[in-house]
Amino acid sequence: MAKISKRMKAANAAVPEQAALPLEEAVSLVKANATAKFDETVEVAINLGVDPRHADQMVRGVVTLPNGTGKDVRVGVFARGAKADEAREAGADVVGAEDLMETVQSGKIEFDRCIATPDMMPIVGRLGKILGPRGLMPNPKVGTVTMDVGQAVKNAKGGEVQFRVEKAGIVHAGVGKASFDADKLAENVRAIVGAVNRNKPTGAKGTYLEKVSLSSTMGPGVQVDVASAAAAD
Fold first, then answer.
1. How far is CA 21 from CA 9, 11, 15, 24, in A?
2. Are 215 and 225 contacting, i.e. CB atoms less than 8 angstroms apart?
3. Residue range 20-54, pLDDT digits in tens
4. Smallest Cα–Cα separation from 121: which of 145, 148, 100?
5. What are the start-end ranges of the E strands in 86-151?
6. Backbone angles phi, psi at 173, to 5 degrees
7. How buried is 4 (Cβ within 10 angstroms: 0-12 exposed, 13-18 middle, 19+ buried)?
8. Residue 16 φ then ψ, to 5°
9. How far apart are CA 96 and CA 84, in angstroms?
10. 220: which residues sit within 8 A by CB, 6+ positions away?
11. Shortest CA distance to 10 belongs to which of 31, 28, 35, 27?
12. Helix 182-198 and helix 23-33, axial crossing angle in degrees, nearest 10
């Protein structure tokens, strides 16, 4: 059995058992327990009353967090000509076509978000087995297959978060850094919970938002009162 550190024991002891806390209180507790020697990421886990195995219960979308993610997102763009220039001007880290495809095929992936113009999809499609499992495959539903590559790059750099429900019916997403002010973290949490709520699929029955939890990278999970997390600012 893995040994639990004194830091983790203290953090776990600070979290009330079986108690769903108001969002602001939960955020403050997560921040207090983020005692690692680096700026931990604060993550939200949203349990949904869906079965993603059914197409009409898939939850997927994108949201721009009002206070950003605190993460430097590397953006790769598949484009040619003027659109490639537009992507570079917007701040894309890697831009290319067949040359970028070959780089990815070689195992070198130097981006966290992938954007493509529609005419590039035959090329990008060849990379499905590489990009797909990493969650990097461009998709028009979340705005990463677009002719407006400049805006897409700016969105990705400016705090845009993509979300997709996992097989267990849970959406995970980073909502900022532990160094963020508590009110900014709470605002980001409400933004993503609201976006997930708005993307409720037609096939969802019964309770949709079942549970919301917050945690930092190295800290324990804290259960959040669902109504508090879903409430509008």
1. 20, 16, 10, 8
2. no
3. 999 999 999 999 999 999 999 999 999 999 999 99
4. 145
5. 94-96, 113-116
6. -160, 145
7. exposed
8. -65, 135
9. 7
10. 8, 11, 12, 15, 33
11. 35
12. 120
Beta strands in 81-217 (DSSP E): 94-96, 113-116, 160-164, 170-177, 209-216
Residue with tokens 């639990």: 4
Residue 147: HSE in the Cβ half-sphere, 13 Å Cα cutoff = 1
Residue 64 burial (10 A CB sphere; 0-12, 13-18, 19+): middle
CB 51 within 8 A of CB 174: no
Which of 228, 224, 227 has its CA nearest to residue 29?
Answer: 224
The terminus-to-terminus CA distance of the chain in angstroms comes to 44
pLDDT over 50 at 1, yes or no: no
Per-residue pLDDT of 90-143, as tens digits, reads 999 999 999 999 999 999 999 999 999 999 999 999 999 999 999 899 999 889
Other Cβ atoms closer than 10 A to 102 = 11
Q: Are 166 and 48 in contact (CB under 8 A)?
A: no
